[in-house]
Amino acid sequence: MRRLIGQLLKFGIVGVIAFLIDIGIMNLLIMGPHLNNVLAGAISFLISLVFNYLASMRYVFKHREDMARWMEMAVFLVSSVIGLGINEVILWMGTAMLPPDAITTMHARYLLYANIAKITATVVVAIWNFLIRKWLLDAPAPGKPVNPRSVAHRLGAWSLSHRPFGWR
């Protein structure tokens, strides 16, 4: 239980920093070149994702010895693409009821709605990310045996014997 609480705290810290990168870039793209919130949100999400991957795999989750790094990256990428889809749907829903020209005619309201949607999307995607990464990417607790029937172990074992281009 202590390990889980520690992971949640670290995940929260990494998440807050990633969120600040994400929302900061999104707001700059909306206020500067007046990109719509869905496009701005996608760009900012992808930029913050790079930080999130590096920080999460270094400080939050422990590498599974029974999984190749390429598979770890693939699982992270696929779960992140799903997270991006969730993010985009929530961002779109947040401003869908505004008129199409709201970004220029109702800029303050548009920005407020976009930010409320972004905060909502961040919470939903953070829960999704933690659950998927904990389930598939995190090594078992020290001293706890690997469950050979778990999806994570079977995926990892497969990845070790199927290395593309000789990757590790």
TrEMBL record:
Pfam family, one: GtrA_DPMS_TM
A single Gene Ontology CC term: plasma membrane
Keywords: Membrane, Transmembrane, Transmembrane helix
The keyword Transmembrane helix belongs to this UniProt entry's keyword annotation: yes
Membrane topology field: Multi-pass membrane protein
Principal subcellular localization: membrane
Any single GO BP term: polysaccharide biosynthetic process
UniProt protein name: GtrA family protein
Organism of derivation: Bifidobacterium asteroides
Source organism phylogeny: Bacteria, Bacillati, Actinomycetota, Actinomycetes, Bifidobacteriales
